[in-house]
Amino acid sequence: MIKAVLIDIDNTLLDFHKCSREAMCLAAEEYGIEFPENYFEIFTKINNSLWEKIEKGELDRQGLFKIRWIRIFEAMGIEADGIAFEETFRENIKQSAIPVDGATEMLRYLSEKYYVGVASNSEFAQQEKRLRKAEMLPFIKNIFTSEEIGFAKPSQGFFEACKKDLPQFEKEEIVLIGDSITADIEGAKKFGFKTCWFNFAKVPEAKCETADYIVNKLSEIKNIL
Question: Is residue 194 a contact partner of residue 176, using CB atoms and an 8 Å limit?
Fold first, then answer.
């Protein structure tokens, strides 16, 4: 029986695609940079590849910050200061809190029935600020971040730290909801949590065989929990 729910933040509660697009465009305007038409496709491809390295333990967040926009500008054929742009981009991200459709309603529903926490591979202060701006904090009891824990999902150390702070629940009484098959679903499943894959990117469901539950819309969570 499920008693606690842990929820990923980016592309599960907050729409990282919309937030990052907004942050990029504001930064580009500030630096006088004109992006090519396929700018977001380039950003997404490189950003995802770097986060995959973090998930595999081949890179840390600080390393990502040092190279992300350097590589993106190289791919775009733009001569600009990638380090400075990265700082501005991340400051803009901290101000951006665009909810995924149905996220607030889902949180309200879950908070009335379960212990609700969030689990993110990011900075505590940044995610707390964004959740506060999105008016989601009243529904959340705990914010678990890789920055504070010292391990990133899907590392078992991340989930071990979450469980240590939730001694009142057994592993099988905790479900993690997230959009990443590797970081969220495979990582939590291996640790012993129940899992619910939110198919944010609308990819073929056959690609996720390990999740206990699959939803294509957050509103479908009510049919499961």
Answer: yes
State pTM to two decimals. 0.91
| CATH hierarchy code of domain 4-15+99-223 | 3.40.50.1000
Instruction: Give the whole-angstrom CA distance, residue 34 versus residue 45.
Output: 19
- Fold classification of 16-94 is DNA polymerase; domain 1 (1.10.150)
Dist. CA 160–CA 151, nearest whole Å: 10
What pLDDT does 190 receive? 96
Residue 55: predicted pLDDT: 86
Angstrom distance (rounded) from CA 48 to CA 26: 21
pLDDT tens column, 129-156:
999 999 999 999 999 999 999 999 999 9
- What is the tens place of the pLDDT at every residue in 154-183? 999 999 999 999 999 999 999 999 999 999
Cα separation of 221 and 101, whole Å?
A: 13
Quote the Cα angle for 18-12-67, to 5°.
Answer: 60
